[in-house]
Write a structure and sequence with these properties.
CATH superfamily: Nucleoside Triphosphate Pyrophosphohydrolase
Keywords: Hydrolase
Number of domains: 1
CATH topology: Nucleoside Triphosphate Pyrophosphohydrolase
InterPro entries: Nudix_hydrolase, NUDIX_hydrolase-like_dom_sf, NUDIX_hydrolase_CS, NUDIX_hydrolase_dom
CATH architecture: Alpha-Beta Complex
Protein name: NUDIX domain-containing protein
Family: Belongs to the Nudix hydrolase family.
Organism: Herbidospora solisilvae
């Protein structure tokens, strides 16, 4: 299943993370994103998912990399905020700007920290 994720940093270098509110990975912290619908481009899906999960409007940048977890093939893109106000929504239980210390403290989705370390 094709999915997308957004790597978004603020002006202080913190990374935008959401806490998954539903399976898969309920309760774990991850990049905002989700499934690409049949009629969407990756960019369309990423803008929709970030808006639904965080309330933020983004501009999608370059592909950062891909990761396969089970039957999910996730295409992660760099992005930056162009509007909106941070608030969790849709299937996100919470949304935060995470520091490097937070990344090693929070329970992250499988493979996320290794993926970020490789960027």
């Amino acid at each position: 299943m094709r999915c997308v994720g957004a790597i978004i940093r603020d002006t202080e270098g913190r990374l935008l993370l959401i806490q998954r509110g539903h399976p898969p990975s309920e309760g774990l912290w991850s990049l905002p994103g989700g499934r690409v619908e049949e009629d969407e481009t990756d960019g369309d899906a990423l803008r929709r998912e970030v808006r639904e999960e965080t309330g933020l409007e983004i501009e999608v940048g370059a592909l950062a990399g891909t990761i396969v977890i089970g039957f999910y093939e996730i295409f992660d893109y760099y992005a930056h905020v162009i509007g909106g106000d941070l608030r969790p929504g849709d299937d996100a239980a919470a949304a935060v700007w995470a520091t490097a210390d937070d990344l090693v403290r929070l329970p992250l989705t499988k493979g996320l920290l290794d993926f970020l370390d490789d960027l």
